[in-house]
Amino acid sequence: MFDAAMEELATEKEAEESHRQDSVNLLTFILLLTLTILTIWLFKHRRVRFLHETGLAMIYGLLVGVILRYGIPSTIYHNKTPPSCSLKEGPVSTLLLNVSGKFFEYTLKGEINSREIHNVEQNDMLRKVTFDPEVFFNILLPPIIFHAGYSLKKRHFFRNLGSIITYAFLGTAISCFVIGNLMYGVVKLMQAVGQLTDKFYYTDCLFFGAIASATDPVTVLAIFNELHADVDLYALLFGESVLNDAVAIVLSSSIVAYQPSGTNTHTFDASAFFKSVGVFLGIFSGSFAMGAVTGVVTALISFFTKLHCFPLLETALFFLMSWSTFLLAEACSFTGVVAVLFCGITQAHYTYNNLSEESTKRTKQLFEVLHFLAENFIFSYMGLALFTFQNHIFSPIFIVGAFLAIFIGRASNIYPLSFFLNLGRRHKISGNFQHMMMFAGLRGAMAFALAIRDTATYARQMMFTTTLLIVFFTVWVFGGGTTPMLSWLHIREIWCKVVVFRVSFTLKGDNLLSHVSLQDGPQHEGGSKTKQESAWLFRLWYTFDHNYLKPILTHSGPPLTTTLPGCCGPLARCLTSPQAYENHEQLRDTDSDLILNDGDLTLTYGDTAITANGASGGHDGTRGEWGGINGKTEAAPERDSEAREHETTSRGTRLVFPVEDHA
Amino acid sequence: MFDAAMEELATEKEAEESHRQDSVNLLTFILLLTLTILTIWLFKHRRVRFLHETGLAMIYGLLVGVILRYGIPSTIYHNKTPPSCSLKEGPVSTLLLNVSGKFFEYTLKGEINSREIHNVEQNDMLRKVTFDPEVFFNILLPPIIFHAGYSLKKRHFFRNLGSIITYAFLGTAISCFVIGNLMYGVVKLMQAVGQLTDKFYYTDCLFFGAIASATDPVTVLAIFNELHADVDLYALLFGESVLNDAVAIVLSSSIVAYQPSGTNTHTFDASAFFKSVGVFLGIFSGSFAMGAVTGVVTALISFFTKLHCFPLLETALFFLMSWSTFLLAEACSFTGVVAVLFCGITQAHYTYNNLSEESTKRTKQLFEVLHFLAENFIFSYMGLALFTFQNHIFSPIFIVGAFLAIFIGRASNIYPLSFFLNLGRRHKISGNFQHMMMFAGLRGAMAFALAIRDTATYARQMMFTTTLLIVFFTVWVFGGGTTPMLSWLHIREIWCKVVVFRVSFTLKGDNLLSHVSLQDGPQHEGGSKTKQESAWLFRLWYTFDHNYLKPILTHSGPPLTTTLPGCCGPLARCLTSPQAYENHEQLRDTDSDLILNDGDLTLTYGDTAITANGASGGHDGTRGEWGGINGKTEAAPERDSEAREHETTSRGTRLVFPVEDHA
Predict the structure, then answer these.
(1) What local confidence, expressed as pLDDT, does residue A194 receive?
(2) In B305-430, which residue ranges form alpha helices assigned H by DSSP?
(3) Cα–Cα distance measured from residue A460 to residue A446, given in angstroms and rounded to the nearest whole number
(4) How far is B300 from chain A (nearest CA, A)?
């Protein structure tokens, strides 16, 4: 009995020790992030622009990785070999361990190959810093992707919808197959030279193609934002990268689904190919539907309840519904990340209009913080993983081949598709824009998450190492080279804003309230321009959305009584919210211009402003916008309801004067 | 080889299935929370006040628990017995499993006793809904506790600091020992009757005393807020419950530390007792220091950098630093939850003053949402656990004994201490207040988390079941009875507000800006009153804090040059921020009145208002404050810097008129 008590104590001690170790690991990452934040602040403060926060996070991660690997003497780790016990049956998720009559429950963590067993013995600490890869998919990616969907700038996104979809779907598929086939050539070459010691199938190459096709130009976009580069180019790049993540992730799972067809695997099999295509379409449309449906449900809930009186409840509901999309999709074996993306887009398009003013701010800020933390965490983890991941396989031929392949893959995505798109586009994608899109093909969080998800086989480990190097190279070199590249390609535009101040005076009770609002650019021209320039598909969708969906799902939009045919009168009256009648007139012109991301306001209306005033002003037009991602932008209210309010309370003058940025 | 591939596929399928199951489980909770939010909204909308959101969450949790337990036929679960393998050595954290040459890694989940093995076989689903108890301690409690610290209403908290500390430290210790000893009597009785089949030591009883001493009057406080009950009573209850959680958690770990002293355990041992007291003091002061230090570090960072230009970075830093407190404390074997509490208080006292206006909102809203979600999650989990937890031990004698013991324990905390406190207090704690404090001894999240942390032994399982029932009973019965109780004790006060409108006109550029601000109650009298009524200890601390700490750590407070003796002139000039000189005059009076929780503004100044105008007005004074936790309250700005701004820009009139609530 005394023995048992001592043993129990030992177990407790060990559990405590393990908990402490976990705390230390997390603490390492938090200190890394803190350091990153402080350095970012210093960079922003001193206007250093060649290194983005994600690049910085990677550098700090690298440093800590080096320290963990080489700096700490390995004697301080627990270096005992875990005991092993054998079983005839296959691996099970739960295992009971019988230690002299007492039972302990164990859960499966994963398979480890012979090389790794050595590592298990060698270095407990480095293994512990390594997270479960599913953490990336289930915890860190969803907020990043949701935020991307929630902050899609609608006007320019929809204006270029056709091109964006072409690049994202067709382009990613082309890129995937080009990279896959090129890498298969590289693999064959390696086998011929004798550099490849283990199996590497064709499907593995295709899988690598899918991983390496997920672009993430976060660095480039941040610089675009700061330098006010062309808005259409921004929309193309941002839209492509957002949708392309979804395509790449679904593509990778359908390639995995391609594999097992009898014993004769790993050669081309038509039926398996069509099965894969079916899987792709099934997963994609299923995830899309799931995201859209939960978005619409949230919109309906916020439409029919008066939840906007309680912003805390509203925000919590919004957060929970968006998260449930992810879980729902995962529970139905669809792809949660894709569902969350479309949920974000739907929430931004409908629910956002029903939220109280405070909740719109709250939800945006909440997801902004989550996105910021998750993204920087992933990038600093990448830096760390280069030194702490235990199964790197550096194969120079494979790496060089991969670098060539991704450039060729990107080129065969952008240039041919741009050519075909330009045949149909009124507003052509110029050669310089194409070069810039080519240049902005950075790889980031999604490629990393896809690569780390499965590192069980030799082939996958080699892919992981290569992907990591690709991310480092593209983020540092291409990310850092964005500013010179923009200048070189003459994309960086000179800036001149038209600022409209509206001063309105209202008599409320005995008090005279004055209200000064800042609006950018003449909106009405913008609105009509959108409609003219859009493709017919978009116009069709726009009309349907504006006339039927918006009035049913949100408090904005025209009343249904005016859009539905006369025979549906009673139904229309029943579904239309009282607010809709009041705001009918104002909304017709403004809601197509609705900009969600306040921070990009000047950017979005910029082209309109320039056409009205001509390019003028100094060269460095960015000073005033340096804090663009931050609070200053709150000064520019751009919601339906707010616009309405100004309209109704304003009896004042409209002062229009061009403001040149601090040149 | 074919076999191996099939086997691998089977493992993958199983892992996928397990992931799906996890998603479904989380989804269940999210739907529960969604349902709770919608019902809360309905209740708030219809002004139903007898059931608080936490009580509601428990009811929904109970319903889902019943469905999971009895509604779903058990045939759809996996009912296979996990294979077992035996080992001679004690349990280890990592185990390797050798299945025909392939190695799989397993991690220890915990010990299971003989009864549970049966359950492992029986019902996989119910087991899966059961979370790892550490989730409560490491993920859900920290945001709740931090939020409590961050939103401590400073003025009334400090005014009653002595009493609060007495109740929290001495009171909780008394309550713990009274309950522990009474329960030991009950256990002896059960042993005599033959109702107790397993071991139940004196230390177990004391541990139960610590668990059951953690009060959580969240329901009562919410109603206080809505009904504007007495502010001092509110401060006493809130302050006590916040600190008392910290005391209870440290108390429970020092009781655990008491146990092992040779073979003759479980009898009184003086050396072990003093060791326990030492552990208590060590853990408590260590955690306190850790929390205070990270808070001060954050204040210094925000003081010396100009991070407030970038609210996103600022918020992220604030969040990370606060979280790192928790991890740091855990890594040093202190108590993270306690550290987080004091970190929250420090952040609110210092860092808050350095944050940009947007960040103050952001941080408050962020932690508000996290707190809301975590709290409701815990309460709905409690409901669920009553039916899904597999090892309940319902012992009628123990339960009845425990109910009696907690009331006696609470009574021997409140009444004697109040008597002694009243000897020294100028503002006595009346009999009715004492009854109300007695009545408000609800048990909640902390008691539950402490009880579920360890349910390995028979005694602990019995405690867990009993704690769960205590929480249910107190939250529903006492929480629901708060409103009648307040009326019955005549604590519910009639309300009459003094509203001060300040209309200020400023000429900025060519525009006339008018600014209408709403302020409640005359602040200056309040400020001096605070100083008069406070204990000497507090006055000493206040002077030191106001004259030295605030100027060093924040941009508010008087310049150091005026507070430090002349000889320290150069140092003082070097440490004083330029802003400090500007705001010198205004700040002297206002910062002691700084109210953090905007929602409670009217409440806080209410007593002042009443003394000035006398009680008048109707009976139901709550209509206008119904949305108190929400957005409306943003109208009342109460930060140092804002107060300053009003002061400097106001050249206008001051209209003071009493406003009677919609009677």
Answers:
(1) 82
(2) 311-331, 336-346, 352-354, 357-388, 396-424
(3) 16
(4) 13
Q: Which of A496, A398, A334 is nearest to A185 (CA)?
A: A398
Which of B100, B316, B627 is opposite residue A372, by nearest beta carbon? B316
- Closest Cα in chain B, distance from residue A507 (Å): 12
Residue that is written with structure tokens 């324990």 in the block = B409
- What SS3 class is residue A282? helix
Q: Which two tokens stand for residue B26?
A: 């989380």
Nearest to A109 by CA among A82, A132, A78: A132
pLDDT at B67: 86
Using CB atoms, pick whichever of B84, B104, B365 lies closest to residue A91: B104
Nearest to A250 by CA among A274, A224, A284: A284
- Cα–Cα dist A89/A78, whole Å: 31
pLDDT higher than 60, residue A430: yes
For residue A168, which of A255, A253, A243 has the smallest C-alpha distance? A243
* Whole-number percent of chain B with pLDDT over 90: 20
- State the Cα–Cα distance between residues B301 and B318, nearest whole angstrom: 10
Angle at A516 between CA A515 and CA A519, to 5 degrees: 130
pLDDT at B485: 85
Q: How far apart are CA A205 and CA A268, in angstroms?
A: 13
Closest CA to B339 of B100, B142, B87: B142
What is the pLDDT averaged over residues B432-450? 90
Whether B269 shows a pLDDT value over 90: the answer reads: no
pLDDT by residue (tens digit) across B586-598?
444 343 333 333 3
**What residues of B are in contact with residue A111 (Cβ under 8 Å)?**
11, 102-105
The token duo for B573 is 């000039």
Instruction: Kindly state the tokens that stand for B229.
Output: 């009950």
* B183-240 confidence digits (pLDDT tens): 999 999 998 888 777 788 888 899 999 999 998 877 778 777 777 777 888 888 888 8
Whether the per-residue pLDDT at B91 is higher than 70: the answer is no
> What is the Cα–Cα distance from A554 to A433, expressed in whole angstroms?
37
pLDDT of A214 above 70 = yes
Sheet holding A102-112, edge to edge: A84-87, B94-99, B102-112, A102-112, A94-99, B84-87
Residue in B38, B94, B355 to test binding to A, most A beta-carbons within 10 Å: B94
Q: What is the pLDDT of residues A314-367, one digit of tens each?
A: 899 999 999 999 999 988 888 888 999 999 999 988 888 888 888 888 899 899
Listed as own residue / partner, the contacts of A278-281 with beta carbons closer than 8 Å and 24 or more positions apart are A279/A253, A279/A254, A280/A250, A280/A251, A280/A254
**pLDDT tens digits along A518-548:** 444 333 333 334 444 455 666 777 788 877 7
Q: In what order do the strands lie in the sheet with B497-508?
A: B511-520, B497-508, B654-659
In angstroms, the CA B332 to CA B283 distance is 10
**Nearest in space to A11 (alpha carbons), one of B279, B94, B138, B133:** B94
Place of tokens 């949100």: A554
CB A246 within 8 A of CB A284: yes
pLDDT score recorded for residue B114: 55
Q: State the pTM of this model.
A: 0.77
Instruction: Count CB-CB contacts under 10 A for residue B46.
Output: 8
Cβ contact A391:A461 at 8 Å: yes
Give the closest residue to A595 by CA, choosing from A606, A584, A580. Answer: A606
User: Residue B160 and residue B533: Cα distance in Å, rounded?
Assistant: 9
What digits encode the pLDDT tens for the residues B602-646? 333 333 333 333 333 333 333 333 333 333 333 333 334 333 333
Question: What is the distance in angstroms between the Cα of B41 and the nearest Cα belonging to chain A?
Answer: 7
Q: Where are the beta strands (DSSP E) in A477-558?
A: 497-508, 511-520
